Amino acid sequence: MKGGLVVxxxxxxxxxxxxxxxxxxxxxxxxxxFRLLVVDNGSRDGSVGRIxxxxxDTDILELPSNLGYAxxxxxxxxxxxxxxxxxxxFLNNDTVVESCFxxxxxxxxxxxxxxxxxxxxxxxxxxxxxIWYAGGEVNLRSGLVRHVGLRRKDxxxxxxxGNTGYATGCCVCVRASDFKALGGFDEAFGMYGEDVDLSLRxxxxxxRVVFVPSSKVWHRVSRGFRGRLLRKxxxxxxxxxxxxxKHGSLFSVGLFLLLLPFRLIPAxxxxxxxxxxxxxxxx
Length: 283
Prior knowledge:
Elements: E1 5-11, H1 15-29, E2 35-41, H2 47-54, E3 59-63, H3 68-82, E4 87-92, E5 95-97, H4 102-111, E6 115-124, E7 131-133, E8 136-139, E9 144-147, E10 162-163, E11 171-175, H5 176-182, H6 194-204, E12 208-219, H7 229-247, H8 250-273
Parallel strand pairs: 1-2, 1-4, 2-3, 6-12
Antiparallel strand pairs: 4-11, 5-12, 6-7, 6-11, 8-9, 10-12
């Protein structure tokens, strides 16, 4: 199949998660026709061999070293271009998808030229009815970047499709032409922030980011940060400073840094003592 959708799954030393993700995508393929590309980000745990054993017909791009989220997905996008992709869906490997997840995202994206990205409703894997993402809010003046509905039980208030501030990179669908025009993910972001930055640049092109709750995904949150809460918080804070320097102002950077200690304490408390205790925190 030439053209159409290519789903890009990035793997780094995570064969178990990736195999579970690919199994869910196999079921999705029975509902909607797309192509699948696994990008291995320089794994050293035998991931590629295991994935090939389980899914011999799946395309795998092997990178010689770990290029991070942005670099690995940009490499995957270039291969998807060679495959003739018209749309690309970037999907975390620590997810499983509902079998019909792709069609609503593509229907909205293809049905309106003013839409630049579509993003599903995402739940905690360990708590399947608890929301991890139901839209995104970003305030460039104060530096507030947060998920709508985080750690709340699903309900009708999280089931309305509409414009949102940013799409999470956990699962985001874009046109190949728009992604290429933007130059892909900004690889200067070491970890976190690439997705918000991409969304802001899409919005700068006059395009909208749309939350599509009829598409559902489950996410094993913060798989790589168990026991390293402080490092995660510092990385997220550093990415927010980079984001504000790029899209905000010196005032917004200063305000964010001034308020940072007051944000870190409740953030840590929310990750550790959440009512639902989702594993690892917000992701």
